[in-house]
Amino acid sequence: MKIFSVAVLIYNPKSTGDAEPKAKVVAKELEALGLRTVLSPTRHAGHAITLAREAALSSPRPLIVSVSGDGGYNEVINGVMSALEKSSQVRPVVAVVAAGNANDHKRTMRDDVSLAELVRTKKVKPLDLLRLTVRYDSEIVQRYAHSYIGLGLSAEGGKAINESEKGGLHEANAILQTLRNHEPFMVRRPMGWRRYDSLVFANIPEMAKVIKLSKHRRVRDGQFDVLAIPHHSWWNVAVTLLKSVVGVHPGAKRRRHFDAHVRNCPLIQLDGEVIEVPKEYHLQIAVRKRVLESLYD
After folding, report:
1. DSSP readout, 157-214?
2. Which of the listed CATH numbers 3.10.129.10, 3.20.20.70, 2.40.50.140, 2.60.200.40 matches domain 130-292?
3. Which residues have C-beta within 8 Å of that of residue 224, sequence separation ≥ 6?
4. Tens of pLDDT, residues 55-106
């Protein structure tokens, strides 16, 4: 398989899912196509960033595969972007094999099409990324997301699910407790300050397996959807979320940039990962249009 110099499969051998056996199965499928493969297990949180960066820099045309959920793939994406920012000569292609909980990116990008089939048919396509920039005091935090960035309920719910026991009932209880304990956050834009319960910036049409964000998949058009829930009672928020399950989130707006000052929102969700930031900061969301190449249907 001459299109790639090597396939590097990054996975967490201690994950609660089936990442390691899936990685080994996929490795055999790719090797059957004539593609040399390398199994690259992680040893600690954040290690996938380092492994992906090294893989992108060490081979002419690597296929870097995250065998994980959305959070693990987020680390791989950030590692590859670190390599691209260091050298304009690297030409990595990224992909994900679902081995997590929600698996939003894989589900919306190729459904049941196998990675081996995409490699065989050479379906390499451009991919937009969302770039998060947080500024506070003299510090700057910058990260990338392949699918969505969430503030408020999205991040709080993501953290609660990550910390809860696995299973539908445990996750539903975690979400219910998040709704009950949630406090609104403040966002200042040109029209002034406003209270919100949730802000989501997305270039895929679904998240959390059931919430429909948009009718469109915006992974290479240089735009993203902004989905806002102004502050209401938790019951009204629940109704809005229910509408997003049975239909499409009401009021989505298309954007290329988003700038705001934020207060009282110390958690930000990037795909399946949740990071902590100060309670007050300047937020910028932008698109890096077609910045990566990926395998999807």
Report:
1. HHHHHHHSPSSHHHHHHHHHHHHHH---EEEEETTEEEEEEEEEEESSSEETTTEE--
2. 2.60.200.40
3. 128, 130, 201, 202, 203, 218, 254, 255, 256, 285, 287
4. 999 999 999 999 999 999 999 999 999 999 999 899 999 999 999 777 889 9
